[in-house]
């Protein structure tokens, strides 16, 4: 089984991906963790590294190639990243998108990163604009196009206690033999 969990910062994607991976005994691979490690190794904050990646596209290409290769060659994995659904594409059994209103996400980020909500909101907006531009420029991906996902959930409506159960129910009820509706991932340039 290969699952993907995607969504913007503060959407609950990491929390839910960890729980889902545990429930189905899947290896959890986080693109965000890899990206933050790369930023730290080079002495940048994630926001600074995002902006640097606008000029040095090899940063994204290296990370994304690694995630795409994992999706194509391994089983029993849960990939978590903003682009996991796009990168795993036809290899994914199920692709999930988690989101919440910006104000909710900014509060969550402020709590976990010990920032003010205003700071978290400003950094998040800047980061999202940077990422959306890079994804479009590098791969022709419109990150706002959710048509490839099997489920998109507003985690601001359902909290930490409910969303994992919703995702679990979807995975448990998924039967590949009955699957008629996987959305194709088309028009992407996997140019790594």
Write structural notes for this entry.
This protein is α/β, with parallel strands linked by helices and about 190 residues long. The protein has helices at about 15-25, 30-40, 45-55, 60-75, 85-90, 100-115, 115-140, 165-175, and strands at about 1-5, 25-30, 75-80, 95-100, 150-155. About 35% of the residues are buried. Its EC number is 2.7.4.25.
Secondary-structure topology with pairs:
Layout: E1 2-6, H1 13-23, E2 27-30, H2 31-41, H3 46-55, H4 58-73, E3 77-80, H5 84-88, E4 94-99, H6 102-113, H7 117-139, E5 151-154, H8 163-173
Parallel strand pairs: 1-3, 1-4, 2-3, 4-5
Helix pairs in contact: 1-8, 3-7, 6-7
Separation, N- and C-terminal Cα atoms: 25 Å
Write down the overall geometry.
globular
Largest sheet at a glance? Answer: 5 strands, parallel
In which order are the strands of the major sheet placed? Answer: 2-3-1-4-5
Approximately how much beta-strand content do the residues carry?
5-15%
Quick rundown:
By secondary structure, the chain is an alpha/beta fold. It has helices at 13-23, 31-41, 46-55, 58-73, 84-88, 102-113, 117-139, 163-173; strands at residues 2-6, 27-30, 77-80, 94-99, 151-154. It is globular and about 45 Å long.
Task: Fill in the keyword field for this structure.
192 residues, alpha/beta, Rossmann fold, five-stranded parallel sheet, 8 helices, globular
